[in-house]
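Revision sheet: structure tokens.
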Amino acid sequence: MHLTLPNVLTLSRVAVIPLFVALFFLETTTGQWIACGVFALAAITDFFDGYIARARGQLSAFGKFLDPVADKLLIASALLMMVGFGQIAELAIIPAVIILCREIMVSGLREYLAGLSIGLPVSRLAKWKTTIQMIAIGILIVGNAAHPAIPESVPVRLIGEAGLWIAAVITIITGYDYLRAGLRHMDPPSAADS
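Predicted:
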């Protein structure tokens, strides 16, 4: 593993998860803002690690493996903590479940296809999905109903939940696209192939 700047940025996204999780236990407005800031910085590294890797010609197998894993760990940690602390409740739990299920399905599909030496590149729509869900999660972190960090006159929670639903719809679309692409490699060989 080469510790290039892009790989360090990706690793930092994983490294901040314990701090991010711990901030939820403060249950204060200050804790929410710091958690949102930590999450935002981690989310920004998702753009810069890939951009810098391409610009400097530092693309690596390790980076290609770790980047989507780091995204999934950060997103899953945030969604689980927000559900646990009631920041995502009632019907808004549905898009969170959709997002988590899709991430697990795509990870399993990528692992299966890797055994066949077949890559599953990230689509442009999937990148938009990641961006929208990261923005929605950031908004929901400071939109906690118990300790709102923003005045109640601003419909922060509604905006965050709407973003989560939009991300869930895109998640279903991209999940279906990935599954359809992967299923082509799962058909049993025909008699003519053997």
